[in-house]
Amino acid sequence: LKLQFLYFIGRKMLKAVVNVVSGCIMVLMLFLALAVPLFPLHSCKVSEGSKSFEPTNDDYYIWVVADPQIVGSRRNSVHHYLNNKMNDMYYEFVTTVMWAIHGPFDLTIMLGDLMSFQYYGDAEFYDIHARFEDSFSIATERMVSLAGNHDVGYGSEMDKETVDRFEKTFNKRHWVKKLNGVWLVGCDGMELDGSRRTESWKFLNSFIKNDIPIVLFTHIPLWKPAGSCPGDKPEIRYTDRTSSLVHTQTTLSQNTTKWILENVKPIAVLSGHDHEGCTYQHPTAPRTPEWTLQAIQGDHSGNTGMLSWSPETQAISLQQCTSFTTKTILVGLIALPILLVVIMLLSCVVMFRSRKVKSD
Prior knowledge:
alpha/beta; 8 helices; 360 residues; 14 strands; 6-stranded mixed β-sheet
C-alpha cells in the first residue's frame, strides 16, 4: 500500500511539473511574441569613419568583442554563483545571435580583459578559461585574443609568470593575421608607456617600412583630447613620482599615440578598455578612424563589432551590434512567473464560474 501511495503521489507530482513547465513555455512564447516587436532582439549600426562597398565573395568578416571580464568563483555564495551563471549564459546568447544572423565569421578578435582580475591564482584562472571557452564555443576555433590589464596587469604589474600563463592558455600577446590586401596587427599596449618589458616596441618597429595596409588592435585606446569620448579623460598614473612604471592608464600617452600614427600608419584602430565606447577620427592624412568598442557586458546590451574588409576596393567598415540588456532579461524572468500566476488564477476563476453556472 505504501508503494502504491508513493507511486500515485509521484505521478501526480510529475504531471504537475510537466503542466507548470508547459505553461511557462507557452507564457515565454507569448512574452517573446509581444516583446520582440517592441524591443528588437538585435540591431546593428554602421560606425562613423566606415567606408561602404558592394559585398563580394572575397570580402572578409571579423567579429570583434571587447572586455567580457569574466568573474571568478572565489566567493562561494548562491548570489555569486547565479550571477556568474547568468553572465556566462548571456555571453553564449550574444554569440549565438551574432553567428546565427551574421556568421560564420572568418575570424574572431577579443580586445582584452577576458577576465576581471589580474591576480587570480592558477586554479581560478583556468576555471575562467574553461567558462570562456564554453560561452564563446562557436567562435573559439578561429579566434585570437589581446591581453588586457585585467589579464596580465598594467606596465608596473606585468611579470613573466602572468605573461607566460596568458600566452600558453590563449595565444601570443603580439600577433599578425595576414588577409588579402591587409594585415591585422595585435599589440599589447600595456607595455608601451612604462614597463620593464620591451617586446611591444620591438614588435611595432618591425612595421615601420611596411607597405601593406595595417589595421591595429590594442586593448588600451590611443590618446585623444579630453572630452572627445564619453568615457574617462586621458590619464596615466605611475607607481610613484619618480617611477616610469605605469600603475593605471585610460589611454596611451600622447607621444606614443603620435609615434604609432606616424610610423605604423594604420588605416584603422580598434580598441577596448573604457567600456563606454568611442568613435574618433585622428587628424592624420588621410584621417585614421579609431573605434573603441563598448564592452560586451549586459549593461551595454551585449555590444560587439562586425568588421568588414573589401580586398577589391581596399575599404574597411565597422558595424556595432546590440541585443537585450541583462536588466531586460531579469525583468522578463521576474515578469514571467508573475504573469504565469495571473493566468493560473484567471483560469481558476473561469473554471469556478463555469462550474457554478452548471450547478445552477
